[in-house]
Amino acid sequence: MKPLRFGAVVLLLLGSMAASLPEDTGAAVASAPPGSPVRPDRVVSLGDSVPTGAECDCSPFPVLVAADLAAPGQRVGVDQLAEDGATSEDVAATVEDNLDDLSPTDVVLLEAGANDLADLADDGQQLPTPAEVDSAAARAVATVSATVDRILPTGARVVVLDYWAVGLDGEVAATRYTPAERAVQDELTDSFDDQLRAAVDAKGGRVGFVGLRPVFHGSTGGEDPTPLLADDGDHPNAQGQRAIADAVLAELASEHATRSPNIR
């Protein structure tokens, strides 16, 4: 998402391992009950500037998820492999560089694709046709789906996230976009989200999915997401990051109810 995502559900979060791996930020907390089903050793964050927490100055949702999954006395690490401005191809390359480090005791959170799409409706360019929108979304989804397929043999639990908007949203979008540009942004988001959900569903329950439209726009799709967004209208603020984390935690709990977890 612009400015940083344009400059960029596992979370899909580049460079060499030595250059890109930050210091582990996970910490044990006492909020999770001892019998909680999901007990990872590590949360791996993959993607763009949403999981990095750009424009927020707050803990991004992968860090919040790790803290809430920790049992009393347990430390859940966080490997933040997301990068501002990353595309789905960038994330695929990151996964290849780090594939040997993934294990069944990891939860991988993957969110990528917005930076593949949002420039299609930007700044005076000829707006894409519906067929071009669907084709662009399909290419991004295919890359994300193939990346998930690379991760699954490691045994890691994967959760893929979509987007509430692939570009600006809320009050900022209302002032920056023309009605035609806003309509195309909505079409891009809908096409990407729908195709991504279908791709995850096709994997037969092996991958979790978090849809963020209801999180930011409410169950009817009509709520203003501005209270959950940073001042740039593009990235989540602290409240938005918390809302995403809660949705991921709910999905992980739901997964446990329907299949045996890889994680103790």
Can you lay out the helices and strands and say which pair or pack?
Elements: E1 11-12, H1 17-20, E2 42-47, H2 49-52, H3 61-69, E3 77-80, H4 88-98, E4 106-111, H5 114-117, H6 130-151, E5 157-161, H7 170-176, H8 179-201, E6 207-210, H9 213-217, H10 238-258
Parallel strand pairs: 1-2, 2-4, 4-5, 5-6
Task: Give an overview in words.
This protein has 264 residues and is an alpha/beta fold. The protein is built from 10 helices and 6 strands, in the order E-H-E-H-H-E-H-E-H-H-E-H-H-E-H-H. The protein has helices at 17-20, 49-52, 61-69, 88-98, 114-117, 130-151, 170-176, 179-201, 213-217, 238-258, and strands spanning 11-12, 42-47, 77-80, 106-111, 157-161, 207-210. Strands 1-2-4-5-6 form a 5-stranded parallel sheet, with helices on both faces. The radius of gyration is 17 Å and the shape is globular.
Mean pLDDT across all amino acids: 86
Report strand order across the widest sheet: 1-2-4-5-6
Strand content: 5-15%
Please give the share of residues in helix: 40-55%
Please summarize the sheet with the most strands.
Answer: 5 strands, parallel
- Tell me the structural class: alpha/beta
Using the alpha-carbon principal axes, give the shape.
globular
Along the chain, the helix and strand elements come as: EHEHHEHEHHEHHEHH
Low-confidence stretches: 2-36, 257-264
Measure the end-to-end span.
35 Å
The number of helical runs is 10
Please give the radius of gyration in angstroms: 17 Å
How many strands? 6
